[in-house]
Design brief:
This protein is of the alpha+beta class and 236 residues long. The protein folds into two domains: 30 residues; 194 residues, no CATH class. It contains six helices and eleven strands. Helix 3 crosses helix 4.
Length: 236
């Protein structure tokens, strides 16, 4: 893996040393605007493809029609997570979660990974705005989502609290898809995200028949995402 990244960096340096002098020597118009347009189109097409592949209903189930929350007891003791009284998961370290994210998104992440490295940037369809899901920390972004809301990556966040968890089979890439689908599910969701100019805003939506809540900051970054009203756990 390291060898691949080193080779990629060397290739990028080689291309940079060739292209930059030519650009300055020619005095031609900067290609940055065109590159930005192409990148934007790629993000838009990628977002549309995920929505189309999902194929779910765009209608959010009215709150009055949501069934009573299914309470699943999760006992967090002796560094273990008992999920639904049928499976036991070891509590993991923050470093374990970070390494898992790097391994999963190796192709998308830069050579030097930081907390601000973007896992996914997606388009709010029909608008000029984009939302970013970053690598994050234990407080926000993908690392937070996994550390607090995924049984296989739980680090102890939310201990002695009521909390909700994804199914243990939910992949990181599916979590990305859920965020995109929920953000774009209704015009009201998109309007709330765009109109927010301070703090965080939450929007709700459904994916594969289950409800989720997405929280986005005023600078259009995903803060968290979690199941809404199901797999609710009580830690002891």
């Amino acid at each position: 893996m390291l060898r691949k990244k080193i080779i990629s960096v060397l290739l990028c340096v080689s291309l940079f040393t060739v292209s930059v002098p030519q650009a300055f020597a020619s005095g031609a118009e900067s290609p940055n605007l065109n590159n930005e347009r192409v990148l934007t189109e790629e993000i838009q097409n990628d977002t549309l493809e995920i929505i189309e592949n999902y194929g779910g209903s765009n209608a959010v189930q009215p709150q009055s029609e949501v069934r009573a929350a299914s309470i699943v007891r999760i006992v967090m003791q002796a560094a273990k997570l008992l999920f639904g009284a049928t499976k036991t998961y070891n509590k993991v370290t923050e470093a374990y979660v970070e390494k898992a994210i790097e391994n999963e998104f190796e192709a998308e992440l830069p050579f030097l990974v930081t907390r601000n490295s973007i896992i996914k940037e997606f388009w709010l369809i029909g608008t000029s705005e984009y939302v970013e899901l970053k690598f994050g920390t234990s407080d926000r972004g993908l690392e937070h989502i996994l550390s607090k809301h995924h049984p296989k990556y739980w680090t102890g966040l939310g201990y002695r609290e009521y909390n909700s968890f994804f199914n243990d089979t939910t992949s990181m890439r599916e979590i990305v898809e859920i965020a995109i689908v929920v953000a774009n599910q209704t015009q009201n969701n998109k309007n709330k995200i765009i109109a927010n100019n301070s703090g965080n805003v939450s929007v709700d939506g459904t994916y594969d028949g289950k409800q989720y809540r997405l929280v986005v900051s005023s600078d259009y970054e995903v803060v968290t995402l979690y199941p809404l009203g199901w797999n609710v756990a009580e830690s002891q």
